Amino acid sequence: MTNSSLKERIKQLANKYASEFIEIRHHLHSHPELSYKEFETSNLIQQKLTEFGIPFEIKATTGVIGLIEGKNPSKKIIALRADMDALPIKEENIVPYKSQNEGVMHACGHDVHTSVLLGASKILNELKNEFEGTIKLIFQPGEERNPGGASLLIKAGVLEDPKPSAIVALHVHPGLQTGKLSFRNGVVMASADEIFITVRSKGGHAASPHTTADTILIASHLVVALQQIISRNRNPFSPSVLTISSFQGGYTTNVIPSEVKLMGTFRAMDEEWRFKAHELIRKEATGLVESMGAEIDLHIDVGYPVVQNDEKLHSLAAEQAIIFAGKDNIEQTEMRMGAEDFGFYTQKIPGCFFRLGVMNKEKGITSGVHTPTFNIDESAIEIGMGIMAWLASSIDNI
Questions:
Q1: Whole-angstrom Cα distance, residue 188 to residue 177?
Q2: Which CATH class is domain 3-190+306-394?
Q3: Strand 134-140 versus strand 181-183 pairing type
Q4: Are 268 and 308 in contact (CB under 8 A)?
């Protein structure tokens, strides 16, 4: 089968099976599970791979790793990854497949990612005698919560036996029209670290601040001072964000509290600056608080690294996407300060992380991810199945 014939066959099968995987998406959306608790989701994936005749193994408790061997299996090994956990959000959509698990929702599209990869798996397995190489299927838990399911799967050996030469993943894009795909070379998404600070003193009467260290005042100075770390130390051409998103202290009008707790996030697009900033945060926060007469506990929970697309793999994937979907349907992804644990994979092997358009303004489908009204134009599932199957089978010479 020629490449052109294979492309058309993939498109035909994607169209043929689309309704099946839209229904799977409905089921997953109705039964969302939080990070590291994706037991029923994992069982469904195992059931479907068994139906398709695809061998698999379990890693990191709920992760499912499948293998499809084409002709000449050792010629290339490409991994395809989909995450499958949901978020602690109460859904507000009025749809037949609304979440049945109160306070839990697939608000980031991982139900779509899982359905798309299952669909691509069925297509690839049906066509495995028509392409060369091996496809490794990675259904990953825990993308939404540290330490990240990707890191756990890597520790469990997901990138070994056999070792992929490249890994590809897609993510829904609610700001991109359905029918379009977007790619970007280099850094695509930021690193993400969590900051936890407690400022302590003995507390005291609000009318006598001179008898104690005012934790509210000190913590307020600290919030402002932390911003100067970013504005005065980072390279202005390298995006970076430090946000203090929680300030908790005090309980009445006439008491200076004995402690104030701050929480926040630090994002960067450069790994060297990322860890230099950690040192500056610790040094400047400790110095400020202690100089004002209080004590500080500071912890930085190191999270996901930057997602960096490999130049060669990105170029090959973007070229094949144009062949599959047409040049007019391929756009450039904007850099985002959001984070993704796909970055753990891109630290180990060449990776390509691209976007699947799911917006449809005419249908009123425009809500962003991580909102209670997020939804997708489900015609995107057919496109996602097709492009994932096509990239896995067509990318070569990595």
A1: 19
A2: alpha beta
A3: unpaired
A4: no
Q: Please, what CATH class does the domain formed by 191-304 belong to?
A: alpha beta
41 within 8 A of 62, measured Cβ to Cβ: yes
Sign of the Cα pseudo-torsion (273, 278, 283, 284, in order): positive
Q: CA Rg, the chain, in Å?
A: 24
Residues counted in the chain: 398
Cα separation, 343 vs 191, in Å, equals 8
Question: What's the CA gap between 21 and 206, in Å, rounded?
Answer: 62
Q: Which two tokens stand for residue 119?
A: 């669909």
| SS3 category, 62 | coil
Question: In this predicted model, what pLDDT tens digit does every residue of 187-244 receive, in sequence order?
Answer: 999 999 999 999 999 999 999 999 999 999 999 999 999 999 889 999 999 999 999 9
Selection from 212, 396, 194, 187 nearest residue 307 by Cα: 187
Instruction: Enter the DSSP assignment of 103.
Output: T
Tens of pLDDT, residue by residue over 130-153, are: 999 999 999 999 999 999 999 999
> Given this model, what pLDDT does residue 64 score?
98
Domain chopping of the chain, boundaries: 3-190+306-394, 191-304
Structure tokens at 316: 């090959």
In whole angstroms, what is the distance from residue 274 CA to residue 239 CA? Answer: 11
Extract the runs of DSSP E, i.e. beta strands, from the chain.
56-59, 63-69, 77-83, 134-140, 166-177, 181-183, 186-189, 191-200, 204-205, 240-248, 255-256, 259-268, 295-304, 307-309, 330-332, 351-359
Within 8 A by CB and 6+ apart from 223, the residues are: 244, 247, 262
3-state secondary structure 117-168: HHHHHHHHHHCHHHCECEEEEEEECCCCCCCCHHHHHHHCCCCCCCCCCEEE
Q: Which residue has the tokens 């912890």?
A: 299
**Burial group, residue 338, by CB count within 10 angstroms (0-12, 13-18, 19+):** middle
SS3 label, residue 63: strand
By three-state DSSP, how is residue 277 classified? helix
Is the pLDDT at 1 greater than 70? The verdict is: no
